[in-house]
Amino acid sequence: MIAPEKSLRVGETEKITINLGLIDLGQIDLLVQEGFYSNRTDLIRTAIRNQLQTHADVVRQTVARKSLMLGLQHYSRADLEALRDAGQKLQIQVLGLASIGADVSPELALATIDSVTVLGALHASAAVKAALAGRIH
């Protein structure tokens, strides 16, 4: 099994953008102003965590059913070269963060990665992402 990279941290965040109606946004600002939350982000993160907790059983069952790796998964050049030399290929399935080393060439990625399914974020060079575009689901 390929080990997580030490430099990646569980607390790392990924920026998202959402559109909210003005009334919803005003209500959020009111709750922040009244001291219920430190800022808009605090309220939104809390709301998301509450929803994820509500659906935790479904997430657990789906992760198991789809054989997803949970958390941070890093694929280094050495890992992929070892797979290539052994004549094996990867089906990357991650819920969290999948990271492909910056020194991985597009050719090595194509030779060793059959498919990529990431629910979360995929960190890889632009060249590797372009090479794998037809294999990313």
From TrEMBL:
It holds the Pfam family RHH_8. CDD domains: RHH_NikR_HicB-like (cd22231). One of its GO terms (biological process) is regulation of DNA-templated transcription. It comes from the Bacteria. Gene3D superfamilies: Met repressor-like. PANTHER family: BLL4998 PROTEIN. This is CopG family transcriptional regulator.
